[in-house]
Design goal:
single chain, 706 residues, alpha+beta, D-amino Acid Aminotransferase, Chain A, domain 1, DNA polymerase, domain 1, 5-stranded antiparallel sheet
Amino acid sequence: MKKETKPVDALSEAEAKTELERLATEIARHDEAYHRQDAPVIADAEYDALKRRNLAIEESFPHLRLADSPSLKVGAPVAEGFGKITHRVPMLSLDNAFSDDEVRDFVHSVYRFLGKLPDQSIAFTAEPKIDGLSMSIRYEDGKLVSAATRGDGTIGENVTANVRTISEIPNTLPEGAPSVVEVRGEVYMAKEDFLALNERMAAEGKQTYVNPRNTAAGSLRQLDASVTASRKLRFFAYAWGEMSDMPADTQHGMIEVLSSWGFPVNPLTKRLESIEAMIDHYNGIGLARGDLSYDIDGVVYKVDRLDLQGRLGFRSRSPRWAIAHKFPAEKAATRLTAIDIQVGRTGALTPVARLEPITVGGVVVTNATLHNAGEIERLGVKIGDMVQIQRAGDVIPQVLGVVSSPDDAVEFEFPATCPCDLKTPVVREETASGVEGVIRRCSGEFACPFQRKEHLKHFVSRKAFDIDGLGEKQIEYFYDDETLPIRQPADIFTLKARDEANGLQRLKNREGYGETSARKLFDAIESRREIALDRLIFALGIRHVGEQTAKTLARAYGDWASVHEAALEIAGGDQVAMEEMDALDDIGPAVVEAVGRFFGEPHNVDMVDRLTAELTILEAEKPSQDSAVAGLTVVFTGSLEQMTRDEAKAMAERLGAKVAGSVSKKTDILVAGPGAGSKLTKAQELGVRTMDEDGWFELVGVAPGR
């Protein structure tokens, strides 16, 4: 009898913690395949299911949310080969809804956040979610000056020359348009154009393409713009980034303006005033989906009034005023031919199902994650089984279960040792209460070559040290090199000095390098000796400390000496240091424990000391906002009456303040509403400045509701 997936409300804290780690690793792998490589190995339904479960667990156990949680991320790093463009306004992704009830929850959350608005007073727009490549196109003084992909949401690829070849995108805007305009939308390939391209490729004896979305993305990412021009790409405009002046005050009004400027806009976009109308529109588009000339994977709802969008604001990776209502997943059956084990940076062993290739929703699927040993047991899968897989949209495949099992099917035995050459034992972590987690890890840590290599790859990744010419391929090369090895981060910064002592074995004399490429690599390394504090913290690869948490720690402590001192104090069991870090907003016990564990290992401390001796570490940037609370740490408590808790937090962060969840001696201001209890008492004991909501609004000079 197969066990069902354990409901979130039935998870213990230890199980929830382990599940969040597993989900973060799996989702990151598929984000990379989908956004950067345009080659998803699994499908949208499973991908969406993974993200939904991750979010559900985080909502039930908010203190366990990982620093590098998928709920904090957008897209993937920029691919090599293109210049980079920093988005003036970040290109965020959308949260997803998968049922009518979740759409209702979204609408109700909008009303709850804004507060005291009558029902049915907020209108929404509804538009098809185009399955293409997100694009931001910038115009200055009416002329197209640049175009960039979403990238990771902050930095995208410069594809200006390629976008100029798309006939549907105007090169100039009409007179009267604002001086700065960033139009955002989706580049896609129509179904008929995709079929015609494949017919042409087949006639020329060339490999055909898998689906319109990946073909459009690959066509736009051609270094030779003439190749892009030979592919018939199209565009739908539906949003904007930086605007020097807003020509309309509603979402629907802005769509009409974009249309008047010559941009194609989707004719199925409607302005609706009730949940029932939104769901009816979704169902109607779903029925017509097969007859459309382009692929869609859902419907996007947005609050229509732009002033309300501004009040609702953003979470770390998505707006509060929009959501994507996704279509159901597609399913198919194929044979599971093998199960391989992959070892990640944190030592987690992940079983991967190898499948007989099968096309699902236009994409060839060849493998799917099985997550962990518990998932294999739950599904009851064996090598040789026919299994049902599910694919949602065009991303991530999931093994749903066994269709049939032949007599010669073989049970998979999870390895007791790591597949690395050291064969170090595989362990399962236990909580203080002795509960075993489901994730199995190699116990070798930095002794394990899989983990050490993955740590180094993480260290040089774009959001960490971002060293040009030293990517994953080069890390593999230098790690295995006997004369010029890179085995830990400090080795990167001693590479040039060690190379100069190598005589004929110098890098410039090696195949694949040469004098120019060797010099460029050494120059790139030298340019990273000066590093931002948050990048260094992120680069260390501490479990649960992702990009956002690294930024939080950098802002809170200010400089490396303070971070280092606090980390060592936590490693030594200092309760005050633990409480101060735990009090930081978005940081919980899992992060504090991970920091203490990392700096409690002598080899890690030695590794960090060797590294930092090679670096100049910049202090964290001071908040740029000119406000009375910029740089201060604020705690909100009690029942706020003039703003919701979410709105209060968003306002404080806009003004440059740091919002903490609990009071400590580092707290500068406590804003207390009626019913304030232990936090107010502690603030008074510590001499923290306290005030009510009126005092807060007077201090920041902002009227309620703004």
